[in-house]
Fold:
Amino acid sequence: MNQNNVREGIENIVKESLEEIDDNLKAIILVGSVNNEDFVDGISDVDLLYVLRNIDAGLLETMRSLREHGRRYTGCKIDIKPFTIDEFNAAIRGVSSFEFFTGWGLEMIRSGRQPCLYRSSDFSIDYEVDEKRFKQDALERAHYYITKLRKVISADNLLLIRGEQKVPAGDELLKVATSSIKNVLRFCLAYRMIITDDSTSIMIQSRKYFGDVHDIAAFLDIRNKKHFDKEIMFRAYNSIELIYQEVVQNA
Structure:
């Protein structure tokens, strides 16, 4: 399916979710590459955050069905992550990030870059994100992705991929490595308060702030061609590691 068809499928997921979950559902937030040009047919997943009044075993069973139906609607793997409204509000207060509700994540939701496909009348995105928290969370996310990339480069480390511990290879290795490199760049830029939406804007801003990123651009380009080249990956890794270390040194 192309991206437009995937979006039509997502609308069906939202409609079914409202019918099945009813007033327990407070918001559905679309995150990830389906929001922009980084979506790759046959590789990218559809990632949804569900904010709920409460969560129980029955609800989780319903979500299992929604994931299965969503795959038929979109032709993509559907990842639905449930959170309570109390977790979301606690994240806004700065108690914790609860994985997705970091300073950066909250700003993406507030600004509409990660859009609410549905939100109830009592779900508010009228909040502000403190700059210090935004930068701290951005640097922590950059560290998370550079660590993930280091594991990939070391070749024999197990990673959690689609719920299974495995050593990534082939298309999976290509997906994990390109995604990690892109996200290190994204969050290094975010630390400098530069918000980027997709690979094009990430590369434009990276050239402006970090200089020569030719090796990184070459590696990201082969993801669309679905052709893996280890030497190109190694050169890209060396480049992104230098950028990350420079940001850390100047933090």
